[in-house]
Amino acid sequence: AQSVTQLDSHVSVSEGTPVLLRCNYSSSYSPSLFWYVQHPNKGLQLLLKYTSAATLVKGINGFEAEFKKSETSFHLTKPSAHMSDAAEYFCVVTLTSGTYKYIFGTGTRLKVLA
Amino acid sequence: DADVTQTPRNRITKTGKRIMLECSQTKGHDRMYWYRQDPGLGLQLIYYSFDVKDINKGEISDGYSVSRQAQAKFSLSLESAIPNQTALYFCATSDNTGSPLHFGNGTRLTVT
Q1: Are residues B45 and A101, on separate chains, in Cβ contact within 8 Å?
Q2: Most B CBs within 10 Å: which of A25, A104, A108, A109, as the mutation test of the B interface?
Q3: Is B56 touching A (CB cutoff 8 A)?
Q4: Which of A14, A65, A101, A107 is least surrounded, with the fewest CB atoms within 10 Å of its CB?
Q5: What is d(CA B7, CA B11) in angstroms, rounded to the nearest whole number?
Q6: Quick check: A97 and B97 in contact, CB under 8 A?
Q7: pLDDT tens-digit profile of A27-40?
Q8: A72 Cβ partners below 8 Å, 6+ apart?
Q9: What is the pLDDT of residues B24-80, one digit of tens each?
């Protein structure tokens, strides 16, 4: 079975400082992992994906994430926060084969302070 | 134009009414999903469909039904709406196992 835990429900950073949103996963088989961003009144937009290729994954808007199998983590980072990054972020896990299930974390709300 | 389009964007209805939420996609994906989002709970799967003749229940299908009218269209119905079905509903598509989901902008449903 798969599961995903987002370790922080809220994160606040100052504009221009680094962002770290933490995600730990559990999976019996090879996982696919995703980060999505949701702005108010919008759908979920794919930021980046890991599907068993390179462990350091670069996404849109300057975000990246590193797949660490030994730590079962897939943390999302950005070197310098922008006001437009304020949103809710979801970590999602599924398998690379044999399932229809996508398991969603409960979300991390990112606040960016001026 | 959005690849996954949901209508309506907002809907207020009364307890006991039947309503339908519609989803259409231009991505050419075979797989379509309906999710429900409640604050602090992430997204929960209501129904999914891997092709026009394939409909499957998800984790929280009670009180809901779906219809896959074509590869591009997947509608969700609430037969008799109740207040605890007040939520944000998302349609999504994917092209294969392990591929990312592509979401519509959601329908905010309020049942009074």
Answers
A1: yes
A2: A104
A3: yes
A4: A14
A5: 9
A6: yes
A7: 878 889 999 999 98
A8: A24, A25, A26, A27
A9: 999 999 999 999 999 877 899 999 999 999 999 999 999 999 999 999 999 999 999
